[in-house]
């Protein structure tokens, strides 16, 4: 169906181009690939003005500095296996700064990893089973800029000015214990997940009981650190080491990870040399609506943070174990699992694209392992989903037996993205060049990132700091 529509609009466009050519008017739908450098700069300047782009996303809260005592405490906690129920897994197990704030895996591997310190593509499972975590670990970089929702299915959500909804309370009520920021609210959940950090520890107890037990664990050795972190030299372990405080400190560490100094920002600030010709063409395609000859990406990836924070069905190929919905267990219904609304089936939140070059694999389940492949999907979703090639996956042990049927179910539910008419052979290349210009060079530079990674000799008070290593070279990340 989509292909038929595409073909007929394509031929209509060709006919109208011929007619317009004959009567001498230029088409509104210009071919971006034909523009020269000056024309590109001029078109982009208009877009930057009308879309009010500054290169700097807005944060609702003051941004913590990584050298602040609370963020330093947060870093220790983020890297500590003490917060993992069975003492094997830390937050960093799936969110390492050297791996784009993620793990470089399609689907995250938590408590069932074979060697917990190995991170990246060589991270393996304990048993020859299928990967249990159903989704791709998103980046922690720039999380402070989310204003409304966190998680692929938006299950942490700011509800107007009332507070924050979390999975601990019925949708869409507010969780009184969520904390001050979305990031703090989120940090209270990975520790409760049996696949991610909890394992079998306190298996049957409520989330809040588990959190309190983990706070108790910390009370043993962490008092000096919490006193420093919360600037309370005389505070007692019971008062200072609470689940509210440890999640707040972790959130400060994460929220200090601001990496926005990209070539695109430099370009907006006036450096016309900051982007290559191809990146400028990509920018124009990205920010121009389909009906005007563009690719229409900014319709959803809007503003300086490249997301409208809404959720859509883009027919992402459904690989992996899926997320239990009580009926089938291998598909993932996305936001529908949160809201139970039929219309929310297969909707996932629009991700930010800042530093997207280093945050692969891409999609909520990491189905695409190259930026080119996910871009082709975004340009022509149904075609790409139907022709999806799982050979691109580098990770073993991903369940694929229902891939075709599950993806088809998403397509049949009705997708919210239209294929770009007249895909030019250079569109993918240009869009990828543009998206690579959204990378802050710091995220590719070990020295620049070192502030967010403990030193080789550092350890937390329990001796539980996870120093991640590359499985192939054996070197620290
Ligand atoms: C086993 C791997 C794993 C561990 C360990 C883990 N995470 Fe995650 N994290 C994920 C996955 C997978 C998601 C996406 C889940 C979803 O959307 O359903 C996620 C989502 C997030 C997000 C949301 C980002 C966004 O853009 O919405 C943040 C922030 C985050 N994790 C921080 C943490 C913190 C803090 C910890 C430790 C308390 C932690 N993670 C532990 C895998 C992990
Ligand atoms: C209708 C809204 C919409 C439009 C238009 C759109 N996207 Fe997306 N995009 C999304 C959503 C939603 C996701 C996440 C889907 C998922 O994971 O299931 C996504 C995911 C992505 C990702 C993966 C990011 C990551 O971190 O995994 C990239 C890259 C991307 N889009 C680029 C583009 C480009 C380039 C265009 C234009 C050709 C575009 N998108 C058009 C909504 C949109």
Describe the structure in brief.
This protein is mainly alpha-helical and 477 residues long.
Can you write the helix and strand succession as a string?
HHHEEEEHHHHHHHHEHEHHHHHE
- What is the CATH architecture assignment of the largest domain? Orthogonal Bundle
Helix content: 25-40%
The CATH topology of the largest domain is Cytochrome Bc1 Complex, Chain D, domain 2
Total separate domains: 2
Order of adjacent strands in the largest pleated sheet? 2-3-4
Strand count: 7
Name given to the CATH homologous superfamily of the largest domain:
Cytochrome c-like domain
Low-confidence stretches: 1-10, 15-27
Descriptive notes:
The chain is mostly helical and 477 residues long. It folds into two domains: 29-60 and 260-436, Cytochrome Bc1 Complex, Chain D, domain 2; 69-258 and 446-470, Cytochrome c-like domain (Cytochrome Bc1 Complex, Chain D, domain 2, Orthogonal Bundle). Helix content is 32%, strand content 4%. It is built from 17 helices and seven strands. The strands form three sheets. Strands 2-3-4 form a three-stranded antiparallel sheet. Helix 2 (37-50) runs parallel beside helix 11, helix 3 (69-78) crosses helix 7 (223-229) and helix 13 (371-379) crosses helix 16 (427-436). The chain starts with a helix and ends in a 7-residue tail after the last strand. One heme C binds at residues 295-297, 299-301, 312, 314, 316, 348, 350-351, 353, 356, 359, 362-364, 374-375, 378-379, 416-417, 431.
